[in-house]
Design a protein that fits this description.
Blueprint: H1 4-25, H2 30-45, H3 54-78, H4 83-108, H5 118-131, H6 137-161, E1 163-164, E2 171-172, H7 187-212
Antiparallel strand pairs: 1-2
Helix pairs in contact: 1-2, 1-6, 2-6, 3-4, 5-6, 5-7
Length: 227
């Protein structure tokens, strides 16, 4: 299994490449470019939230407690909250994530459980998509794709580290197949994960569906005899 520092280095390089892709291929401004690079790096560390060590958990929840409220700013502004109310809500979100969600997460998850899975990667991407309220759909997809790319890189790297390529035969260690999975041995954990994924897909569809039906208005064709 790759170390925390290894995942951080790999995700940082991948984030820089993803940011460059956004600048060169999508002609994005520096703000979304650095946001994409940062979310890719963060996504590459997220699966370590279920680590047995307390250091990655503490650092990642501190970081998530800052990033998630910042992503909420546009949504709060859209709902008409004043600056003072926004500051209060952002502070409350940080405290909830850092001291509430983190403790609940540690109690409910096990190392290499469903949080190390493909559905968890989709949950992370959909969460960013719903929180990041940009009027540009492409930017929302770019941001959610960034965290999913980083998340996937973590899973792939863990799988590669579970394979021993030295010697005449390829060997697998006890963690092989535990990262790139779609379900776990716990039926409750699997059901809960897919239930959450379904709710997020429904919420994202509710936001995207109305915009997909919008068609640019075109003038009605002239009828014979009209002046």
């Amino acid at each position: 299994m790759a170390s925390y520092q290894g995942h951080l280095a790999y995700a940082s390089i991948l984030g820089a490449a993803y940011g460059c892709m956004g600048a060169l291929q999508m002609d994005l401004d520096w703000g979304p470019v650095f946001l994409g690079a940062g979310l890719t790096t963060l996504g590459g560390l997220l699966p370590d939230l279920d680590s047995d060590s307390g250091v990655p958990i503490r650092e990642l929840f501190n970081l998530a407690g800052v990033v998630i409220p910042l992503l909420l700013l546009r949504r709060l502004h859209r709902h008409g909250f004043s600056i003072e109310e926004t500051l209060v809500l952002v502070g409350a979100a940080f405290l909830l994530i850092r001291f509430g969600v983190s403790r609940l997460f540690c109690r409910l998850t096990v190392h290499r459980g469903m949080f190390h899975s493909i559905p968890a990667m989709l949950i992370a991407g959909l969460t960013v998509f719903l929180i990041y309220q940009s009027p540009d759909l492409n930017l929302r997809l770019y941001a959610s794709g960034a965290v999913m790319l980083g998340f996937l890189s973590h899973l792939v790297l863990d799988e590669l580290y579970s394979v021993d390529f030295m010697g005449a035969r390829v060997k697998l260690n006890k963690f092989a197949g535990s990262a790139l999975k779609f379900w776990s041995s716990s039926r409750l954990a699997t059901f809960t994960t897919y239930l959450l994924l379904g709710v997020l897909i429904w919420a994202a569809w509710r936001e995207v569906a109305p915009t997909m039906g919008e068609q640019p208005s075109t003038p009605a064709p002239a009828t014979p005899g009209s002046t």
